[in-house]
Amino acid sequence: MGDSDQRPRIPTSLGTSDADAITLLGQDLTSLMGTVGFAELALWLVTLRRPTPSQVRVFEAVLVALADHGFTPTAIAARLTYLSAPDSVQGALAAGLLGGGSRFLGVTEDAGRFLADVLDRAPRPLPADAAGWDALALTAVRQARSQGRLIPGLGHPVHKVTDPRTPALIAIADAEGLRGPHLRLFEGIGRVHPQELGRRLPLNGAGTCGAALADLGLPPELLRGFALLARTAGLLGHLAEEMRRPVGMDVYRMVEQLSAYDPPPDSPEP
User: How many other CB atoms sit within 10 Å of the CB of residue 45?
Assistant: First the structure.
């Protein structure tokens, strides 16, 4: 027996190929082409289970909700990087994706983690009605406030009353029978938080997406990845528009023209 036979295996359940065929998720790749949608495949790759049509519909609604939101910092970063390096579309895409943090896109994961943590600690059985969810939500909000923590998914810089994505996504999840505990807890937070915060904030779309993805059984630690998957399409759109109708140079010139130099406080007089 040769040394090669003693080498450890490096297992994968995703894909493999040989000289004659490509296998993906146990299927011949060519049998999936034209029959499986990209969103369905993305879910399948993560869960290793083929999703149901209802799960795909909710997942696609999340991807659409997160694809683009105008001239956000992620889109501006992508456009300016393309301005600087038009030979590197991948660099421009990466620049935009790297901006997915706690203020933009990352809220999807933060909300999913927060809700999952509350549910993990919640007594069983979970609430059976809105009053029970409100009580659980109020306890979670009070605990977060006592620890000086923000409630992820509350508030939006543009949508001050209602984020239009939130009721639409909840309605889709409800219609597909996938309005699960994460969404119900999040809705409860939306109802009770003014008791602690003293003002009403909207449940933002990114947080609602996190709740919906968690109700699909996806690991909270991967939820930001799905937000980035969605935003990749939006960034490609921005880069295509930048090629057709560039604004990156205008943004750069505007910042340069508005910049005002302030010498360091301890610098000598000229």
Answer: 13
Which domain covers residue 209, as residue numbers? Answer: 106-220
Q: Which residues pair with 23 in a beta bridge?
A: 16, 28
The pTM of the whole model exceeds 0.85? yes
| Dist CA 265 CA 11 (whole Å) | 60
- Examine residue 51 and state whether it is found in any structural domain, yes or no: no
Which residues, in sequence order, are bridge partners of residue 154?
A: 203
CATH number at residue 150: 1.10.230.10
In the chain, the number of structural domains is 1
- Calculate mean pLDDT across residues 112-133: 96
Residue 156 lies inside a defined structural domain of this protein: yes
Distance between CA atoms of residues 167 and 231, nearest Å? 21
Q: Which amino acid is at 28?
A: D
Sign of the alpha-carbon torsion through 172, 173, 179, 182: negative
Q: What tokens does 240 get? A: 């295509």
79 CB burial (10 A radius; 0-12, 13-18, 19+)? buried
User: What b-and-e string marks burial along 209-247, b requiring 16 or more CB atoms within 10 Å of the CB?
Assistant: bbbbbbbbebebeebbbbbbbbbbebbbebbeebeeeeb
Q: Is 105 within 8 Å of 231 (Cβ atoms)?
A: yes
Over residues 62-116, the pLDDT tens digits come to 999 999 989 999 999 999 999 999 999 999 999 999 988 777 778 999 999 999 9
Q: Is the pLDDT reported for residue 4 higher than 70?
A: no
Q: Where is 83: in which H helix or E strand?
A: helix 73-84
User: What is the identity of the amino acid at 114?
Assistant: F
* Residue 57 located in a structural domain: no
What CA–CA distance (Å, rounded) separates 32 from 26?
11
